[in-house]
Amino acid sequence: MQIDVRITYNGKEIDAEAVLDSGAEGIYCNTSFIKKYGLPTYDIELPIYPRNVNGTLNKQEAICHATILRMGIGTRHWENIEVAITNTGRHEILLGTDWLKVHNPSIDWSTNRLRFDRCPPQCHPIEQQDPTIGQFLPIDAWEIQNDDYLEYTDHGTDVSQCIVAHKVCYFEPMI
Questions:
Q1: Distance from the CA of 150 to the CA of which of 44, 47, 94, 132 falls in 20 to 30 A?
Q2: SS in 3 state form for 7-73?
Q3: How many CB atoms lie within 10 A of CB 94?
Q4: ∠ at Cα 35 (29, 37), nearest 5°?
Q5: pLDDT at 85
Q6: What are residue 73's DSSP bridge partners?
Q7: Do 48 and 20 have their domain in common?
Q8: Which band of pLDDT confidence, cut at 50, 70 and 90, is reported for residue 142?
């Protein structure tokens, strides 16, 4: 499956195509892509000797370099990934089983749709959100309970009064 990705480097966004490859171990980026965009690389400690599907040694032979890419997929998925640099043929980025295991995306093969519903938290940027009612009230807020601030037991009184009183008592002093 081929997916559109965005690589961010030095404030610029680079459109690229990645291939999900369950037959490949690791995460790879094509040497020509790295050179085309002048992305920085570093030497890896132990060379990797990748093999093609037919068992032959990859044309580039040992992989000796890697880089860290800031990669976005869709509008909400961003991650920093370490990629080994090698000849990946006509593919710019190859996301193998290492990547697939970490993200475990839901894939609808009939529509070619990918959904990131089981990603690790580091893949989603933290967005500042307005507080929700659940942040103002205890977990059991909708059950009968005593409120120390109001000093009474709530038996179906106007819940909005409880919310405001709770907010004023416990949250506004922190601001």
A1: 132
A2: EEECCEEEEEEEEECCCCCCEEEEHHHHHHHCCCCEEEEEEECCECCCCCECCCCCEEEEEEEEEEE
A3: 21
A4: 90
A5: 94
A6: 77
A7: yes
A8: very low
Q: What is the pLDDT of residues 48-79, one digit of tens each?
A: 887 777 888 867 678 999 999 999 998 888 89
Domain span including residue 143: 133-174
Q: Report the C-alpha gap between 38 and 32 in whole angstroms.
A: 10
Amino acid at 100: L
- On the CB side of 20, CA atoms within 13 Å amount to 19
In terms of domains, do 152 and 82 share one? no
CB within 8 Å of 58: residues ≥ 6 apart: 49, 50, 51, 52, 86, 87
Centroid of chain to Cα 105: 11
The dihedral built from the CA positions of residue 42, 43, 45 and 50, taken in this order, carries a sign that is positive
